[in-house]
Write a structure and sequence with these properties.
The complex is a heterodimer. Chain A is mainly beta. Chain A has five helices and 41 strands. In chain A, strand 24 and strand 25 form a beta hairpin. Chain B is mainly beta. Chain B has one domain: Immunoglobulin-like (Sandwich). Chain B is built from two helices and eleven strands, in the order αββββββαβββββ. The termini of chain B are far apart. Classes of the chains: A mainly beta, B mainly beta.
Chain lengths: ~775, ~180
C-alpha cells in the first residue's frame, strides 16, 4: 500500500560510472509536487546512516555528494508534511525523481484526497498517521470530530460514537481493515472498539460509499486502514508516549516491523497500545468514576508467494474498561429531575482517583482476518477475505448485595465474514469491480446477569453481491454501481409476560441499493463532485423487540415488531478549488431523504412501576430529511502563516409530524491560525517543521428542537480555545516528533447537546497534553 | 490459498446447516434482585392492622400493578413495618433482609402531602443512622393525604436533613418510589 500522503517514484537510476567501493558517488534528484508539477523548494533530503543531507533549490533540485556505495535510508521531508522514508541501494551515481503530494499539505486537514483512484467520485476526508499520532490520547470518535460534518455522541469523555451528517450507530458503516465492524452498534453509549493508533489512515466517505461494503449504512462510511508493512529489509519501529493533565492520563504505543526478502518474501508488523486515565475534571469539580483503561495489540503477517500473489493474516485485540460518571447512575425520573437542578453531581469527590467502579463498561473485541490478493494480469485482481470477529460487552451497574461485580448486561457476538472480489481495469480507463459477501452473526446474552436481557438472542445470515463500473476521461470520472442484500434473522426472546417463556421470531429482508457519481475537473484548479445514492437499513433487533426500562434515560422503550426497512436517498455536491496557491477551499452540500426513518417517539402514556412512573417511548417510523453544508477553507497569509476556517451546518426534520429530529448535531465553526518554521537552530541541534497553532471552536446552541422533545433545554452555545505546538528532530537513526496541545484553555464551563452526560455534569475543563513520537 | 478457499467452502456450507441459523435459546434469569412487592403494615396500639401494598409481579411491562390503600384513625401512633418481596421466584424472597444487612447503603423515606402527618425512624444501621424499615406513624386531624414511600440505594446519610427523613439532599438511586392514598378519620 502506498503511503497516503506521498508517492515516491524512482523514475530512473542509471549508471554513469562503475568503480568498486566508490565513495565519490552522488545522489541527486528533483522534488516535484505531484499535483501541480511545480518544483518543491526547501525540501529536505537526508541520508540517515551518513547524516548527510541536502535542501532542494528553487528549481526543486537537490544533490548529496561523497556517498559510498551501500544501502541507505533516505528521509524526505517538507514543511508540514509527514516525513517519508525510503530504502535505497546505492551502487552508482543515482538520480531520483520524487513526487510529493504536496498539495495535500495545504489542505491536509480539509483533505483534498488525490490518492484513491477507485473513489474519485466520492467525497472523502482523511486523517493521516501523523495526525493520529499527535492525537494519541483521543478515541476514534474524538479524532474524527476534527472534520467538518463529523461530530460525536458521547457518554462522558471516554465513550464516544462518531456521527456523520447526523447519522450514527446502525446508520453509519465502520469498515475496519476491509471488514464491517461487528458489535453492539445499536447502543448510543457503545463506542466503536477500534484503536486509532494502530491505523495508518482513517477516511470518512461522506457521500454514498457503502456499495462495495456489507454492513448497515444509509450513506456515509468510516474506513479504518491499518498500517501496512513497509517493504524494508531492516527492522523499523515507532514509539509514542503521551501524558494528559485532565484525568492524569498516560498512554504508550509502539510498533515494530520488518520485511525480509531472502528468497522468500515475508513481512511482519506488531502494534501495541496501553492507556490509562483517571477521573476527568470539569472546571469546578472532578467527574467521579470517569477513568478509562485500554490495552490493544495488532499483528500482521504478509507473504509474497509469487510476484503477483500476496497473502496476509491480521489479528487485532481491543480491550477497554470505561468508567461512567457515578452521578449519572439514576433509578427513576425523580432522580433525573433532581440531577438537573444540582450544581454538581451526586457522589462528587474533591479528590482525584484512578478507581473505576460501577457503573462501567468492559469491552473486548477481537478480529482475525485472512486475505489473499492475486493479480491475474497487471490490470485484473482477485481478492479473498475471511474474517472472524468476537465482540464481548459487559456493562456493570450499581447493584445491591455485592452484585455490582456481576454484569447487568453481558453480550457475546461472533461474526464470520467471507468475501470474494474481482477488479478489472480494461479498455481505455474503464474499471469494473464486483464481489459477493456472506456474513453470519450470532448474538447471545451470557446468562450471568440475573436480569432480563435488553435485546434478545439472534442469529443473522446476510448474503450480498455488488457490481460497479467506472470510466475516466481526461477531466471526468463517472461511476455507477448497485448491490443486493438478503438477510435472514432468527430471534429467541424472553416473553414480557409471566410466567416467562421463550418466544421465537424470524424475519427476512431483501434490499437493492444503487449509487452513481461523477467528478469533473472544471479548470486546472477547480473540481466538482456529485453523487446520488439509494440505500436501505433493516430494523435492528433493539428497535423490533426491546421492551423495558432504559434506566440511563429514565424511559420505558417499546419495540415494534412490524417495522419496515428504512429507505434513504442521499445526494451530495461538492466544489473544491484553489486561487493562486494561496486560498484553498472546499464546500459540500448534501440532502438526504429517509422514508420510514425509525425513531423513539415519546407517547402520552406514563407507566407506573415500583420505581415510580416512567414516560413510555415507542419505536415508530416517519419520513425524515437531513440536509446541510460542510465548508472548509485555508488561506496562506504568508509562506509561514496560514489560517483555516471550517463550518458545519445541519438540519434534520421529521416531515410527517412537521417537527425537528432529535439528537442532531448543533452547527459549529472552527478556526485555526498556524505559524510554521522550517528549521530552527538551537545551539548545536536543529529543530525542524516547527508548528505553532491557536484554534477556537464555536458550537451553536441546538435551537432546532421543541421544548417537549427533551427533558431539559439543549445547552447554550460555547466556544473552546486551544493551542498546539509540534516540532521534529533527527538524532542519528531516530526521528523525534514532540507535541503539546492545550484544550479549553480558558477552563470554560460548558455542556454539549450530544453528550448524554450533560443531564448530570459539566463537560471537560482545561486539558494539557504532551507527547513524543520516535521513529527508527 | 487452498486453505482460504477451503474456509470459504466451509463457511458457505456451514451456513446452510440448520443449527447455525438457530439462536442460542436464552436462559430465563433468576431475577433474585427484583423487588415486585412493597407491603407497609401499620399496627395501631390496639392491635388493629392496616395494610398498604404495591405489587407488580411482571415488572415494567405487562399488567398494571395492584395497589392497596388504607384508612387510619386520627390521634394515634402506629408502628410501621416495611416488607419487600421478590415474587418472581417461588417461594417469594424477602428482600427486606438484604436491605437491612446493607443498612448503611439504604434508606426509606416517607413523604406526606398533608403536613399533619409524619414518621419517626425506629431502626438504625451500623453507623447509627436510620434505615426506615421500622417506623412510627403519628396521625393528627382528619385528611385525605398521599404517602410517597421511596427506597434510595447509596444515599448520602450525612447530608443535611437526610437522617431525620428529608429526602432533598439524599442523592443515590431510587429503587422504589410508590405513592398511596391515605385517609385519616
Amino acid at each position: 500500500m502506498l503511503n497516503s500522503f506521498f508517492t515516491l517514484f524512482i523514475v530512473f537510476a542509471f549508471c554513469v560510472q562503475s568503480i568498486a567501493q566508490n565513495c565519490n558517488l552522488e545522489i541527486s534528484g528533483l522534488l516535484k509536487d505531484e499535483i501541480t508539477r511545480e518544483p518543491i523548494v526547501y525540501g529536505n533530503v537526508f541520508i540517515k546512516e551518513l547524516k548527510l543531507g541536502s535542501v532542494s533549490d528553487s528549481a526543486g533540485n537537490f544533490k548529496i555528494r561523497d556517498v559510498c556505495a551501500g544501502n541507505y535510508h533516505l528521509l524526505v521531508s517538507h514543511i508540514g508534511c509527514e516525513t517519508v522514508e525510503y530504502f535505497l541501494k546505492v551502487r552508482n551515481d543515482t538520480l531520483l525523481k520524487i513526487s510529493l503530494d504536496h498539495n495535500h499539505h495545504h489542505l491536509h486537514e480539509v483533505s483534498i484526497t488525490a490518492k484513491l483512484k477507485e473513489r474519485t467520485v466520492q467525497e472523502s476526508q482523511s486523517i493521516s498517521k501523523q495526525d493520529l499520532e499527535e492525537n494519541g490520547d483521543k478515541n476514534l470518535s474524538a479524532i474524527l470530530e476534527q472534520m467538518s460534518g463529523v461530530s460525536s455522541i458521547k457518554n462522558g469523555n471516554g465513550i464516544a460514537k462518531p456521527v456523520v451528517h447526523g447519522l450514527y450507530g446502525n446508520r453509519l458503516a465502520i469498515i475496519n481493515n476491509g471488514v464491517a465492524q461487528s458489535g453492539q452498534q445499536w447502543g448510543v453509549d457503545h463506542s466503536p472498539e477500534i484503536d486509532p493508533l494502530s491505523a495508518n489512515e482513517i477516511t470518512v466517505i461522506k457521500g454514498v460509499g457503502a456499495i462495495e461494503y456489507q454492513g448497515n449504512s444509509l450513506g456515509s462510511v468510516i474506513l479504518i486502514e491499518p498500517s501496512s508493512i513497509e517493504r524494508e529489509p531492516h527492522l523499523h519501529g515507532a514509539g509514542n508516549y503521551f501524558f494528559e493533565s485532565n484525568g492524569l492520563g498516560n498512554g504508550m504505543h509502539f510498533s515494530l516491523q520488518q520485511y525480509k526478502n531472502v528468497g522468500l518474501e515475508i513481512g511482519w508488523k506488531v502494534d501495541a497500545t496501553v492507556k490509562k486515565s483517571g477521573d476527568n475534571r470539569s472546571p469546578n469539580y472532578y467527574l467521579r468514576n470517569t477513568g478509562n483503561e485500554e490495552a490493544n495489540v495488532a499483528l500482521k503477517f504478509e507473504k509474497s508467494i509469487r510476484k503477483n500473489w500476496i497473502i496476509d493474516a491480521y489479528f487485532s485485540s481491543f480491550n477497554a474498561k470505561l468508567g461512567v460518571l457515578r452521578g449519572a447512575h439514576i433509578g427513576n425520573l425523580t432522580d433525573l429531575e433532581e440531577a438537573f437542578i444540582r450544581t454538581e453531581p451526586f457522589f462528587t469527590q474533591d479528590k482525584f482517583s484512578y478507581t473505576i467502579e460501577a457503573p462501567h463498561q468492559q469491552v473486548n473485541h477481537h478480529l482475525m482476518k485472512l486475505h489473499s490478493l492475486y493479480f491475474i494480469t497487471p490490470n485484473q485482481k482477485l481478492e479473498f477475505t475471511y474474517a472472524v470477529q468476537l465482540n464481548q460487552r459487559k456493562e456493570f451497574d450499581v447493584r445491591r448485595s455485592g452484585r455490582s461485580d456481576m454484569p447487568a448486561l453481558s453480550l457475546d457476538q461472533v461474526s464470520n465474514f467471507g468475501e470474494v472480489k474481482y477488479v478489472n481495469g480494461f479498455g481505455e480507463n474503464w474499471e469494473f469491480k464486483t464481489g459477493v459477501q456472506v456474513n453470519h452473526t450470532d448474538n447471545t446474552n451470557v446468562p450471568e446477569t440475573n436480569i432480563l436481557p435488553l435485546i434478545p438472542n439472534y442469529v443473522a445470515l446476510e448474503y450480498g453481491a455488488f457490481g460497479m463500473i467506472a470510466k475516466s476521461w481526461d477531466k471526468t470520472t463517472f461511476e455507477i454501481g448497485g448491490r443486493y442484500d438478503l438477510e435472514n434473522r432468527n430471534i429467541a426472546a424472553i416473553s414480557n409476560f409471566v410466567p416467562r417463556s421463550i418466544v421465537q421470531y424470524s424475519n427476512s429482508y431483501s434490499n437493492f441499493s444503487a449509487m452513481t457519481g461523477v467528478s469533473q475537473q472544471l479548470t486546472e484548479n477547480w473540481k466538482l463532485l456529485g453523487n446520488v445514492g439509494f440505500a436501505n437499513r433493516n430494523p435492528e433487533v433493539n428497535e423490533l423487540y426491546s421492551n423495558g426500562l432504559h434506566q440511563g434515560v429514565s424511559g420505558i422503550e417499546l419495540g415494534e415488531i412490524a417495522l419496515r426497512p428504512e429507505q434513504s436517498l442521499k445526494g451530495t455536491l461538492s466544489l473544491k478549488g484553489k486561487v493562486k496557491n494561496k486560498l484553498f477551499f472546499e464546500v459540500l452540500g448534501y440532502y438526504q431523504a429517509i422514508e420510514d426513518y425509525i425513531f423513539l417517539n415519546p407517547s402520552n402514556e406514563v407507566r407506573l412501576t415500583i420505581r415510580g412512573a416512567f414516560p413510555v417511548f415507542k419505536y415508530e417510523q416517519t419520513n425524515a430529511s437531513i440536509y446541510g453544508l460542510d465548508f472548509s477553507t485555508i488561506y496562506q497569509i504568508t509562506s509561514q502563516l496560514e489560517t483555516k476556517i471550517q463550518y458545519s451546518y445541519l438540519k434534520g426534520d421529521d416531515n410527517s409530524q412537521g417537527i425537528p429530529l432529535i439528537f442532531m448535531p448543533a452547527n459549529n465553526i472552527y478556526g485555526a491560525l498556524t505559524y510554521d518554521v522550517k528549521n530552527w537552530r538551537l545551539g548545536r541541534s536543529k529543530l525542524e517543521n516547527i508548528e505553532l497553532q491557536l484554534n477556537n471552536r464555536f458550537v451553536f446552541e441546538q435551537t432546532h428542537i421543541l421544548p417537549e422533545q427533551d427533558f431539559i433545554q439543549p445547552p447554550k452555545a460555547y466556544h473552546l480555545i486551544g493551542a498546539k505546538v509540534s516540532l521534529e528532530r533527527q538524532a542519528g537513526k531516530f526521528r523525534f516528533n514532540f507535541y503539546a496541545r492545550a484544550e479549553n484553555i480558558l477552563n470554560m464551563v460548558y455542556r454539549d447537546y450530544l453528550n448524554r452526560q450533560r443531564y448530570f455534569a459539566d463537560d471537560l475543563g482545561v486539558n494539557i497534553i504532551a507527547g513524543i513520537n520516535v521513529k527508527f | 490459498m487452498r486453505l482460504l478457499l477451503l474456509s470459504f467452502v466451509v463457511l458457505f456450507v456451514s451456513c446452510k446447516k440448520d443449527d447455525s441459523l438457530t439462536p442460542t435459546l436464552p436462559t430465563i434469569p433468576n431475577q433474585e434482585e427484583v423487588i415486585t412487592t412493597l407491603n407497609y403494615t401499620l399496627t395501631a396500639p390496639n392491635g388493629d392492622v392496616v395494610l398498604f401494598s404495591f405489587k407488580d409481579v411482571d415488572g415494567d411491562g405487562g399488567n398494571a400493578p395492584v395497589i392497596v390503600n388504607g384508612e387510619l384513625d386520627t390521634n394515634l401512633t402506629y408502628s410501621g413495618k416495611i416488607e419487600l418481596l421478590n415474587e418472581t421466584v417461588s417461594p417469594a424472597e424477602d428482600i427486606t433482609e438484604e436491605v437491612k444487612e446493607e443498612g448503611d447503603e439504604h434508606q426509606i423515606f416517607y413523604q406526606f402531602s398533608n403536613s399533619d402527618l409524619g414518621t419517626i425512624y425506629t431502626d438504625t444501621d451500623a453507623n447509627g443512622k436510620p434505615i426506615g424499615v421500622s417506623t412510627q406513624l403519628i396521625t393528627k386531624g382528619t385528611s385525605s393525604s398521599t404517602l410517597k414511600i421511596t427506597l434510595r440505594h447509596t444515599p448520602d446519610k450525612n447530608a443535611s436533613g437526610v437522617s431525620s427523613g428529608d429526602i432533598s439532599n439524599a442523592g443515590g438511586e431510587t429503587d422504589i418510589e410508590v405513592t398511596f392514598a391515605l385517609d385519616v378519620k
